[in-house]
User: Fold these one by one.
Assistant:
Number 1:
Amino acid sequence: MGMKKLAAALAVAASLALAGCGSGSAGAEASGDAATLKVGTVGIGSDAALKMAIDKGWFKEEGLNVETSVVANPPAGVAAAQSGQLDLTYSPSIPMLNAMSQNVPLKIIAAADGYPAKDQQPEDLAKVDDTGLFIPKGSDITSPKDLEGKSVSVPARKAQMEVTVAKTVKDAGGDPAKVKWMVLDPASALQSLDSRRVDAATLIAPFTSQAESKGHQRLASPGVEFFQEGAVGLWVAGARTVQEKPEQMAAFNRVITKANDYANKHLDEAREVGAKLTGVPVETVRKGAETYWPTEVKLEEIQRVNQQLADLGFLAKEVPLDQDLIFSGK
């Protein structure tokens, strides 16, 4: 669910003030000599695991006081983490790799969200993918290959939605360069589907459910088809912060691992929390894809994304990766 608009945006994002600093964190009341960690989020349903860990006091048990703030988008959060404004931030692997290609030193502290292992995924991928590539009701498009020369909406150019749909088009034998990409926010994209002003639209929940209720057809589930399995959203920190706060990072990792496992095993509770965080009715959340919270990050998952970004031309070349990218302190 992250944005990949980095090259110029990263420099701009570095100067962005954090939106709503200290907001909605339930962790602002520091107790005793607890170490404070400033954590950036993007306000999505998978934040439920972090929120539950705060509310249940698991961070305080580890001597941590977590203060959350909502950042404009993942690149803005990455820039804030690099500069030290934030200790950690939510970033999917795509904007993280994009930042690393700009020589931004980062480390992965823990998984934030993702997809279950392939052998645990349902046949209907829409049940695990909160994104969808939709065509209007009655469209004669039958394959992503047919999108050559057609108009396809994405929330932002060169961002995660375009990347994943481009892979879907290429895998179907089409040329993503021949797609007429249009930038529309999800609400406008849905309206454009209704009026057939676009040939296809890339949507995210809850707009996916709304599109289906109107009879529009899901052509593909581009998120899970691109990432396949494992961690997608990550809790990321600047390398210098990790050097300065290794014990706090290890504690954050332990708590998030525990929280992610809890969220997977208590899905109804996690949905309730996610609904409150996003302001989306819980009934709508239940109808959508099931969020999955991985309890580990594997280098092969990040490398798979890295290779695909280079193959699709979104990176000039693969970013050099090694196991040191993933924080291993316990």
Note: The domain at 7-118+229-325 is CATH 3.40.190.10 (D-Maltodextrin-Binding Protein; domain 2).
Number 2:
Amino acid sequence: MYEYYQISAQDLGKDAKIPILKLGDSGEVFYELALEMVNTIRRHNAEGRATVFICPVGPVGQYPIFVRLVNEQRISLKNCWFLNMDEYLTAEGEWVEKAHPLSFRGFMDRAVYTQLDPELVMPEAQRIFPDPHDPENMQRVIQRLGGVDVAFGGIGINGHLAFNEARDELTCAEFAALPTRVLNISRETRVANAIGDLNGAIDAMPKRCVTIGMAQILAARKIRLGVFRDWHRSVVRQAAYGEMSAHFPATLVQRHPDALIITNANAAQQPF
């Protein structure tokens, strides 16, 4: 059991159930994600088509590169829609304020939308976050736009995509059908995020969130996942080689026809 943890960095990707692109440092991973964004938008603009992305706040290293390329190359985002994956909620079930250090809406404003040339950036109406009071709106938007072109993201410590936490009691089909919704964040996810985002202040971490559903992620025409941390060494192996189950949600991507995990050399290393 768990033989995949023993896969060497050299062999990582061989016979994987999800293709793996191995790169050098984290900057290469972020650049690859940014290029996927820019090239898709440029191609769709030339064809007169809208571009629809599911966007994460984690990983985030691709956004400064994306902003620079868009501004330098004068790429219009006027026909582009960013559907953000998730957002933390207060105890009362409201989005945390944009000024909150963990706010994903605040991050996107500070790091992306206000950094883009105003002549190029998409209208605010095309910057969508899941709404805790109307979670079904995300699916309505996707249907109206004709589907998602690329779902970008990372993989959490327990295999979660967005905040789709493990649900051992569900079948793969049941988990894959989960819609956009409000849910409790698992303690393991709160611990991992507290270490990365709040210097270990777990008691200050929100306990609730609103997340885009597995149904929306898995229905995207492409899925691109970036991994680069030390603990991603085990996560990438379980996602790409493990048994498909709701216990480790990223394994459900194994069925997707156009998915790719992009890893740096660090995360490609053997866990132990």
Note: The domain at 33-226 is CATH 3.40.50.1360 (Rossmann fold).
Number 3:
Amino acid sequence: MKPWLSSVNKFYRLRKKLARRRQTKLSPPLILSAGFAGLILLGTLLLKLPFATEQSITWLESLFTAASAVTVTGLVVVDTGATFSGFGISVITLLIQAGGLGFMTFAVLAALSLRGHLGIRQQMLASEDMQETSLMSIKRTALAVVLLALLAEGIAVIAMTLYWLTDKGLTAAFLEAIFYAVSAFNSAGFVLSPNGLVDYQQQRFITLLISVLFVIGGLGFSVINNIYEQRRWYRLSVYTKAIIIATIAINIIAMTVLWLLEMNNPATLAGMPWYDQAINAWFQATTPRSAGFNTLDTGAMTESSAVFTFLLMFIGGGSMSTAGGIKLGTFIILLVATYAFLRRRDEVTLFDRTIPQDLVMKALAVTVVYLGLIFCGIFALMILNNLPFIDIAFEVLSASATVGLSRGVTAEISDGSQLILVFLMYAGRLGPLTLGYFVATPKKRHVRYPKTDIQVG
């Protein structure tokens, strides 16, 4: 080989090596984590401005509110409607929208408008947040996310404005409708009343409309996009079919269980006619997997209902949705993998399709990381607060699943505990697996070892 050709080859090898090093410095989880952290910091600063509130709030209260809005959780330490001015409520609304649709969705659209296309690194970054497996679908998904959100929220705003027009007047009805439409579709659970939506528990139109909004948002944008594109059941993807069936089944089962548990509780459903009981049971059954709204006093619900709500919050909604939890797809994989093992099958299948082993391992990893997060949160809050276990556990699960339901202790816990909840909301929005990658970036091993047996069960 000629000397000059050898030098050129060395130069290109060195260039590739340096390029790989530059790329590994900022991994997608790190950039996504920094993006959401920056959004929370910006929201904290804006909400601390004097004209953002009607009464002075602390930096911790501002941070907690901003984190709850960006992570679309809905836990609050101050009365949102009474504490914040019109400007402050507008900031919260924008934070909810940005956090719900995803920080990277806006970044993708901005990059597309400036450059006309995405590079491989930008596509990988977007796919990390959107949980898309096809890099070519990132652009289409980003646009679909925004269009779907604007369409659903726009219809809801018009409907709620017309419904409230007589009682509230045009301006007040319109502004309140915008706030609740954004909060509902993004599964944030923020309300303008200290009683949540308890005041609306007999306004069936509002409760059903809000529940439809957060159920749609909790399905996941990829599911809705697949339904819109295919429009035939047999054409839908396996994932879409699984999410639809599981959502219907879980919602019906949850509604039935909570109705039976609360129908004789005088503090919740006992005093209502059966049709209002059914609507409010439906609302309380669907909200834990996605939103933080409540038409019943959560703290007055029976402890058995609270424990059942634990499971619903833990499961969460669909991937690439505004919901939290381990995600419904993860839960489905765990169920079918367990069924396959009990049936002594070599492969995990769903709708006559084989689920790859790496997806099963990913589901296990998400669940283990999420359980570890919950345990650490409960353990820390039990040390710092003298409160009943069920209230602490409910608060931790609600924060880590970005649900926002509370048994009324959020403002009562210590400042250190509120900071822990801020971290749990942040970690829950990023996703347990993304957080795990951020803490310890995995590297593939190129060495295989002999197999061994470990006793299990």
Note: The CA atoms of residues 245 and 251 lie 10 Å apart.
